[in-house]
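Entry:
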Amino acid sequence: MIKKIISISIIFLGLTSSGFCFDREEIVNINVYEKINPAIVSIDAKIPNGVSSGSGCIINKNGTILTSSHVIDRSNDIEVTVANGEKYNALILEQTGLSKDLALIKISPKHPLKTVKFGDSANVKVGQKVLAIGSPFGFSGTLTQGIVSRIDYKKNKIQTDAAINPGSSGGPLVNTTGEVIGINQAIYNPDDNISNIGIGFAIPINEAKKIVIKG
C-alpha cells in the first residue's frame, strides 16, 4: 500500500466574539481602533465666522485633551463630544499658536475617561504603517490607514498618506501598537481642494509632550 503524504497549510486567523475571521492586518487595525477610539473626541468651536471642527486626544482621565491650536483659535465657546456621545463645554488650558499648532483644553466629565498612550516620535521610520483616527467632515470615529511617507526634519513634521481631511485636525496618528506618534495637523492643498489628496502632515508627539508637561 502506498501512503500518500498530504501537506496541509494552516493559516491562523483571528476569531472575534462575533464569530468572524480576520487576517493579521485586519486584526491589527481592529485592535488599535478598539483600544484608542474611546479616547478620541470631536470638537466644535464657535468662531467669529462660523464653527471650527476638529478632533482631540484625551490624555488624562479627568478630561484634559490634546488638540490642534487652529481648531480652537479665537473661540470662547468650545463643545467636546466624547466617544459615548456625551457633550461638554471646554476651557483652554494652553495654546502654542499656529507655529507649533498645539493646544490643551479641559472638560469636566461625569466619570473617568479612557486615555491615549504616547509613543516616541524619535523612533518613527519612513515606510512604517500608521493609522489616523478623527472626525473628518463630522464623521466621528473614522479610521484610516497608510504609511509614513516622509519625515521633514527641518519643519518637524511627519508626512503620511493616511487619509486626513477637514475635521481630522487634532486627532492622533498612531502606530500599530496603538501609541500616538503624532497629532494630525494639515493636508497639502495646492489646488484649493479641501479633500485629501494623499499628502498629510502630523506634528511629532515628542513636540506635543513639551506642552503636556508645561500644561
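Helices lie at 24-36, 69-72, 205-214.
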